[in-house]
Specification:
The protein contains no helices and eleven strands. By secondary structure, it is an all-beta fold. Strands 2-3-4-9 form a four-stranded antiparallel β-sheet, with no helix packed on it.
Length: about 110
């Protein structure tokens, strides 16, 4: 049986602690956020209105959407403040030597 996900290298560097940036990997736009030295990756789409999360604020492991101020947990996508009611789509991140990788679903 095939693995449900595969590890793909993140392009470029992880942003500094407290910052985020958007990357594109295989047609997916991901927001990579650094929470105190730990990188997290989420789909670059606010669960509230599906706009880009670029320009939001990282506070600890919380991310605040720049459009309406809704917040979610970077670790698991759980909504923390309205208007976000649905979880964000999260992707696992791991260190591989001197690079970082993100787990993406295997192609169908």
């Amino acid at each position: 049986m095939a693995d449900p996900e595969r590890w793909v290298e993140l392009p470029g560097d992880v942003p500094p602690p407290g910052e985020s940036r958007v990357v594109e990997i295989e047609g997916r736009r991901l927001l990579v956020a650094n929470a105190g030295g730990t990188p997290y990756a989420v789909l670059d789409q606010c669960p509230h209105v599906r706009v880009s999360l670029a320009g939001g604020v990282v506070r600890g492991t919380t991310y605040e959407c720049p459009l309406h101020g809704g917040r979610f947990d970077l670790r698991n996508g759980a909504p923390l403040a309205l208007p976000i009611r649905k979880p964000a789509t999260c992707f696992a991140v791991r260190r591989a030597g001197d690079r970082w990788q993100v787990a993406l679903p295997a192609p169908a």
